[in-house]
Design brief:
Strand content: 25-35%
Radius of gyration: 20 Å
Length: 380
């Protein structure tokens, strides 16, 4: 598949042709602006290249989870295909249910300055995951990165058009579209009002993946993430806390807890709580990656007219080669300056230190914070 950035430009042109021809996507769609290609939202930071490829490629260990590095009591669970569930992160969606059982959670900006989450499940199960919300364009590269089954509750008409015409990964959408009825796998949860009361479960989603005619269930066809101790000469800095100031009313903070040896998550200065256990959400690793954000012509809401963001996770140089971009890794109470790259399929996200050495994660779950090039994190 070609670079997603270039593909979206073509997709938007195709979307306009289809829409004007009277057979466009379902759902409310406002008239796009005359510009048919994505308009840069910010000026991206120049990527820094490091030696490639990263070697050696991590070798799967049969008794360890490829996404957390942890020993599994039921190793056969890692032979399933990952699930990627779209979770809301606005005030009405919080506190969320099931994020504590995700192997990886990715947080990213959407229109209007709010963030949304992608929860990746492989090695653990949970029966009440939500609130499930609508998809965004970043879910396309994430679905390919983790070789997953994507579950969501609707999307804007333009985003649905892209999903239906230009992707081939398995997907379950709770909302009916013009082309198909709503998919199974979703139920009503404890919150009030659609879509905030839309929930799902790993058991149900994996059962659907095995149904005749779908044949989605198989092992993840991506290499595992790299886990292990930090090795010299990797440079580290003791940092107890970082804040990601997406916008003034959306400032997640991660604080190192020496006793539990984990990072605790705060939102608006208060502990970010998991709904079912009332425990504070935490992570063994917090990875911040800087990626180019571009505003597209896809209208996300017909009343307020915010435009969908395209977040470039497979950046290329002028010769079409994948490039390294800025990152930081927090693990073990340290901040490690880093670089990240995703070489498109069939690769996994890779991290390296500033010298180009492969950078391992601590065993356990990870949160990935995707930020635009102009954003500066705050540290203490």
């Amino acid at each position: 598949m070609a670079h997603l950035k270039g593909a979206i430009s073509l997709l938007l042109i195709g979307f306009l042709v289809t829409f004007l021809g009277g057979c466009g996507p379902s759902g409310p769609i406002a008239t796009p602006t005359p510009t048919k290609t994505p308009r840069p939202l910010v000026t991206p930071a120049a990527p820094t290249n490091t030696p490639e490829p990263l070697t050696p490629t991590p070798t799967p260990e049969p008794d360890r989870c490829p996404l957390t590095g942890e020993v599994m009591e039921e190793p056969e669970k890692a032979l399933r295909r990952p699930l990627i569930v779209k979770i809301g992160n606005d005030e009405r969606s919080r506190p969320q249910s099931g994020l504590h059982k995700a192997d990886i959670v990715i947080e990213h900006l959407t229109e209007g300055g709010i963030t949304r989450l992608d929860a990746v499940y492989l090695c653990q199960d949970f029966e009440k995951i939500g609130a499930v919300r609508s998809a965004r364009l970043i879910d396309i590269p994430l679905a390919y990165m983790f070789d997953g089954i994507f579950a969501h509750a609707g999307a804007s008409g333009g985003v649905i058009w892209v999903f239906e015409h230009q992707t081939n990964f398995p997907r379950l959408n709770e909302v009916q579209t013009e082309n198909k009825p709503g998919d199974p796998g979703f139920d009503k949860g404890p919150k009030e009002g659609w879509p905030y009361n839309t929930f799902t479960s790993t058991t149900v989603l994996w059962q659907i993946a095995e149904e005749p005619g779908r044949d989605w269930q198989r092992p993840m066809q991506r290499p595992p993430l790299l886990f292990g101790p930090l090795e010299p000469p990797t440079k580290v800095e003791e940092v107890n806390e970082i804040t990601i100031p997406y916008f003034s009313d959306n400032r997640p903070t991660w604080r190192w807890d020496e006793e539990d040896e984990r990072y605790l998550r705060f939102i608006h200065g208060a502990p970010d709580i998991e709904a079912t256990t009332e425990e504070q959400m935490s992570a063994a690793n917090v990875i911040v990656i800087w990626a180019e954000h571009e505003e597209t012509d896809i209208i996300e809401d017909e009343y307020t007219y915010p435009k969908s963001l395209e977040i470039i996770l497979n950046a290329n140089d002028e010769n079409g080669n994948a490039v390294w971009s800025k990152a930081v890794l927090l693990r073990d109470g340290y901040l490690i300056p880093a670089r990240w790259i995703w070489r498109w399929m069939p690769h996994m996200l890779e991290l390296a230190d500033e010298e180009g050495n492969p950078l391992p994660l601590a065993e356990g779950n990870s949160w990935i914070e995707v930020v635009p090039p102009w954003l500066e994190i705050e540290t203490e």
